[in-house]
Design brief:
Blueprint lengths: L1 H7 L3 E9 L7 E9 L6 E4 L13 H4 L9 H8 L3 E3 L9 H6 L5 E10 H5 L23 E11 L9 H80 L6 H14 L1 H4 L4 H18 L4 H22 L5 H14 L6 H4 L7 H10 L10 H11 L8 H15 L2 H16 L3 H10 L7 H11 L1
Antiparallel strand pairs: 1-2, 1-6, 2-3, 4-5, 5-6
Helix pairs in contact: 6-15, 6-16, 6-18, 7-9, 7-11, 9-10, 10-11, 13-14, 14-15, 15-18, 16-17
Length: 457
């Protein structure tokens, strides 16, 4: 628009477009200025000058006609929906620069860009809150047009006359710009509406996907509950093995020695700041490991990531301990972790069938996952053995059987959930909701799942 005006009018020097925002704020913001370089047709672009209309713009209440402040050409153009021509700047009633500092301003013409009110606001036009003048009277209420933009063109001194050919060209071009702006606005509204629809659809999909994931997460806890029951079998197995094979080295006494080594030097470490905090955290983690009956690979990860690094930090930061003695204890601890898997020493357990001992030594260290569900049946058979010396066998058996009923539904639920999520992702939910939603085998077992959790608790 600016380039077209300056190309058509040789006496024009600069053009600026102001965007007028929606009612009632009508924020006037300078979008872009283009100025002709001296003695050339090349244009410079940008917003170099300091102005109240530079982003974020100026609200209607700050540039409308109001007693006690300078009259602005912008206020006239917006309120009256009419152009303003300043062909004699020193006599211009709306020259802000002249009113504030007495300086001469360029000759300029400002033209409002009008668009249809209904075209811009649609069916919501009746609910519009109209802007008001300083007396509180609504403007534009009786007009079919609204101001969407304002064009300001500066001219060389003495070349602009009110009502001349230049102002007529600017007016004609502003009408073309109004049609283009309305077209762009409608396209933008359509684009925003499509984005809103897509966002709503995505939110609906995410909500359904979230509910499905929650169900799968709950089902995933079943394996934790099963392995918690197996840890009871593991603890009892290691207790019996320690009684019948006292010559074996176990993690408990070694961790007690390491905890004792920390306790002996606690007073000396107290003034060491960070090292004392490390020692206290290490003490807690060693005591916790001593109480737990984890599978050997999990205990090794515990030692590797929680115990070893802290001891190394302490041994590197102080000479309170004999490094070789502590490293020896840590090596022995690592070797002692799988001691319970030593079936050879279990043969010393008198009064228990060898078949039971063989199964127990193996199943006490399994971790049930979706890939080895068959071993859950073996665990249940082991607990059902009449001479298995474990407390609360009946309760353990009820829990394991309840969890087994649930866990066998997980693969089917996962498969159906994956199909639903894929359907949502690619927009075929409406087509597949009956096939995947109303006919969803496996979800009817959620009641059993809740019952199983209740028995676990």
């Amino acid at each position: 628009m600016i380039k077209t005006v300056l190309s058509c009018l040789d006496n024009a020097t600069k053009g600026t477009i102001y965007k007028i925002g929606l009612m009632p704020e009508l924020i006037a913001m300078r979008v872009l200025s283009g100025a002709r370089k001296q003695d050339s047709d090349e244009l410079e672009w940008g917003l170099p000058a300091v102005s109240d209309y530079n982003p974020p713009g100026k609200k209607w209440e700050h540039y409308r006609d109001q007693p006690g402040r300078p009259l602005e050409a912008m206020g006239w153009c917006v309120e009256k929906q009419m152009s303003w021509t300043a062909d004699n700047p020193m006599q211009d009633l709306r020259s802000v620069r002249k009113q504030l500092s007495g300086e001469r301003e360029d000759e300029f013409h400002m033209e409002p860009v009008l668009v249809g009110k209904k075209g811009l606001y649609g069916y919501s036009v009746e609910k519009i809150q109209y802007p008001v003048d300083f007396l509180g009277k609504s403007i534009w209420q009786d007009s079919e047009k609204v101001v969407a933009a304002v064009i300001k063109i500066h001219f060389k001194p003495g070349t602009l006359k009110r009502g001349d050919r230049s102002t007529g060209i600017i007016r004609d071009l502003s009408q073309s710009l109004g049609s283009e702006l309305l077209s762009l606005w409608l396209r933008e509204k359509l684009y925003q509406a499509s984005k809103h629809f897509a966002r709503q659809r995505l939110q609906s999909c995410e909500f359904l996907a979230h509910e499905l994931r929650n169900t799968l997460v709950k089902l995933g806890f079943v394996f934790s509950a099963i392995n918690a029951q197996i840890s009871i079998l593991r603890a009892r197995w290691e207790e019996l093995l320690q009684e019948h094979a006292p010559e074996l080295e176990w993690k408990g006494p070694l961790l007690d020695e390491l905890c004792g080594a920390l306790g002996e030097k606690a007073a000396e470490l107290r003034s060491s700041g960070d090292l004392f905090a490390v020692s206290q955290r290490l003490l807690i983690e060693q005591e916790e490991l001593a109480r737990l009956y984890l599978p050997p690979h999990q205990e090794w990860e515990w030692v590797k990531h929680k115990i070893h690094p802290k001891w190394e930090k302490l041994l590197s930061g102080t000479s309170l301990w004999d490094r070789s003695a502590i490293e020896s204890l840590l090596d022995r601890l690592a070797n002692a972790l799988p001691t319970g898997m030593n079936y050879y020493f279990s043969k010393k357990m008198d009064g228990l069938p060898s078949e039971l001992l063989g199964k127990w030594s193996k199943l006490a260290y399994v971790q049930i996952t979706s890939s080895n569900l068959f071993q859950l049946d073996e665990v249940i058979e082991l607990v059902e053995h009449p001479v298995l010396p474990v407390s609360h066998k009946e309760q353990m058996l009820r829990v394991l059987k309840s969890l087994r009923a649930i866990v066998h539904t997980i693969p089917e639920v996962e498969e159906k959930a994956a199909k639903i999520l894929q359907s949502l992702r690619f927009g075929t939910w409406a087509e597949d909701q009956y096939r995947f939603g109303l006919d969803f085998p496996g979800l009817e077992s959620l009641g059993e799942f809740e019952m199983g959790l209740t028995q676990c608790r």
